[in-house]
Write a structure and sequence with these properties.
heterodimer; A: alpha+beta; two-stranded antiparallel ribbon; 4 strands; flat; B: alpha/beta; four-stranded mixed beta sheet; two-stranded parallel sheet
């Protein structure tokens, strides 16, 4: 029916794909705002997880604070260096 | 930046389809991190990340054209620490020649809505430093790979840009935004992600065409329902011509949503795929062979 295809299939990686796009010298559209909120369908907004498991979310923030303190103390006392 | 030396040859007068073999390995979800690693608690799901890396590496060693990307350092280093010197040396070779490419490279693929930028930097650093210590700068990821997070923040893109990434790719954007982008060929863009940093925060950003999965009919993992490519005309279930035809249709459809008509990407993998890498690579080998054969022969299907 058709004579020949113009498709070239290759094993690749995302960085090889980006290199190939880069070599085409295309002008891209721009964007400067974010991609929130995410809706996968009508009446399906994925915004519940902004607040789900509030205790766990609180623990993570406290853990982050503590980690920064520990890092600073480790740095001051030299205990962050490999022996 | 380090360039992957094993990148395929691009044919400028053709539509080059970049098949990206990948596995999306959640660092804890329906099972814990360690349950996912070993593959325990099979009543929830049978997958185990240790088997994925065991299974993929021999295929890469056997065939220099094959590639694989790996994303979550939390899993990779659980596996790496269990390997002997011989395997470690083999994997180092695969990383150096570009067949095994680290993408994202953080300890995990972090959420972008509820995370603090301080914690994002810390978790990325844990993964990236370990990769650097193990493989050197050759392993430094060039792409922020946020294929599953539910929405995307300016700050995440800005952080990737400041870490030296060349691009960010993801799948989940608002369904109407995606339709509009497809219709106006704006699936890929330059994201000017920070107003204060200006050009230092600009980063190439791409919305993937088909979630982070292969086009319909071409999911060859053991977990998928799609048929393999059955190419012996003497057997009852011969489907090679149909498969080739519908793949060409899928590629020609995908190109309508993107600016480029020379290069498109297809993500060949999904959640915890490649536990049996053979079922993927064997069928992709056939697909590549039969589709590319049409370039010279002319098709009679």
């Amino acid at each position: 029916q058709s004579n020949g295809s113009n498709i070239n299939l290759v094993y690749s990686t995302p960085s090889c794909y980006l290199d190939a796009l880069y070599n085409e010298n295309t002008t891209w559209p721009t964007k400067s705002d974010d991609f929130f909120p995410y809706a996968s369908d009508s009446h399906t907004y994925w915004t519940g997880y902004f607040t789900s498991r509030p205790t766990l979310k609180g623990f993570e923030r406290q853990g982050n604070n503590l980690l920064q303190v520990v890092k600073q103390f480790a740095s001051l006392t030299g205990s962050d260096r490999d022996s | 930046c380090f360039s992957n030396p094993s990148c395929p040859e691009i044919k400028p007068d053709m539509l080059n389809v970049h098949l990206v073999c990948h596995t999306h390995d959640d660092v804890g979800w329906l099972k814990t991190v360690d349950e996912y690693y070993y593959g325990s608690q099979k009543y929830i799901t049978t997958v185990g990340v240790q088997y994925i890396l065991d299974s993929v590496v021999p295929f890469l060693l056997k065939d220099p054209n094959k590639k694989f990307i790996y994303v979550e350092s939390a899993f990779f280093f659980r596996w790496w620490d269990e390997q002997g010197d011989r395997m470690k040396n083999n994997v180092k070779k695969l990383v150096e020649n570009g067949q095994l490419e680290f993408i994202n490279g953080g300890w995990c693929m972090n959420d972008e809505a509820s995370t603090h930028y301080n914690s994002i930097i810390d978790q990325m650093t844990v993964g990236l430093v370990r990769l650097n210590d193990t493989f050197g700068p050759v392993a430094f990821p060039r792409i922020g790979w946020q294929i599953d997070p539910f929405g995307h923040s300016n700050e995440q893109a800005s952080l990737f840009a400041q870490m030296g990434m060349d691009g960010e790719l993801f799948a989940r954007v608002d369904y109407r935004d995606k339709t509009n982008r497809w219709d106006s060929r704006k699936m890929e863009m330059i994201w000017k992600s920070s107003h204060s940093l200006g050009e230092d925060s600009w980063i190439f950003t791409g919305v993937l065409p088909h979630h982070y999965e292969p086009p319909s009919g071409f999911c060859f993992d053991n977990q998928c329902g799609d048929d393999p490519i059955m190419d012996d005309p003497n057997l009852e279930d011969y489907n090679k011509d149909d498969k080739v035809r519908s793949f060409i249709e899928a590629a020609n459809y995908e190109v309508t949503g993107f600016i480029s008509n020379q290069n498109i990407i297809m993500t060949m993998g999904s959640d915890f795929h490649y536990v049996n890498a053979n079922s993927w690579y064997k069928n992709l080998d056939k697909l590549i062979k039969y589709v590319n054969e049409l370039q010279s022969n002319g098709s009679n299907i």
